[in-house]
Task: inverse folding
């Protein structure tokens, strides 16, 4: 199934990959990228051995990586996870042996990207996302949970993170992946507002709002 593709063609919700796949024909060239070794350097999840709490944030582009991280966490590892997706249908069942609390933030019409300043006079207010939280147990699949709050802008987890009471930990490790602007904001939160050692924060910008991958490479 291709997101945003119907019998009538591509809809406004279709992404670049879906639009290309809908038009693909025999003979078209495809380039596939993936890990060439067991240590997936694209994920870059490397918590120090003394880590006593894992904190994860990912948007839909980093969701497969986050799911892989959760699946490989040792049983009983304490983890708090925030995942941001476009639609409620994107919420998935995730399996982990970790002692993890996972919160899904569903945009449902709100744009992805870094948090913006408050709307000016006469401007529409941003769409409020829906959040759902569920507790994980050893080997448990992740359910959708129940609505427990709303946010005001993207990244939707930012306000929730600021308000969250994290479990006590002396040596937390943070992994953040997704839209580059969101990643930078959340890294500043963990380092500047939470006081977490920047050396224990891994941040990966998978994409940047408004830029193609080619333009992103040109600017890097």
Result:
């Amino acid at each position: 199934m291709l997101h945003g593709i119907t019998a009538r063609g591509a809809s406004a919700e279709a992404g670049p990959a879906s639009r290309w796949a809908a038009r693909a024909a025999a003979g078209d060239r495809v380039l596939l990228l993936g890990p060439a070794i067991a240590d997936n350097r694209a994920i870059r999840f490397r918590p120090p051995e003394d880590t006593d709490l894992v904190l994860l944030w990912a948007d839909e582009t980093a969701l497969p990586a986050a799911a892989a991280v959760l699946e490989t966490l040792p049983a009983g590892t304490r983890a708090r996870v925030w995942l941001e997706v476009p639609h409620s249908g994107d919420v998935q069942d995730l399996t982990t042996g970790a002692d993890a609390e996972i919160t899904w933030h569903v945009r449902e019409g709100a744009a992805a990207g870094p948090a913006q300043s408050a709307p000016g006079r006469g401007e529409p207010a941003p769409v409020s996302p829906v959040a759902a939280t569920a507790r994980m147990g050893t080997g448990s699949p992740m359910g959708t949970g129940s609505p427990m709050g709303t946010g005001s802008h993207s990244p939707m987890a930012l306000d929730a993170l600021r308000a969250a009471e994290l479990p006590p930990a002396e040596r937390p490790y943070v992994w953040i992946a997704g839209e580059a602007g969101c990643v930078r904001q959340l890294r500043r939160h963990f380092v500047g507002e939470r006081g977490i050692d920047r050396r224990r924060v891994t941040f990966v910008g998978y994409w940047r709002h408004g830029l193609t991958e080619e333009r992103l490479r040109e600017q890097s």
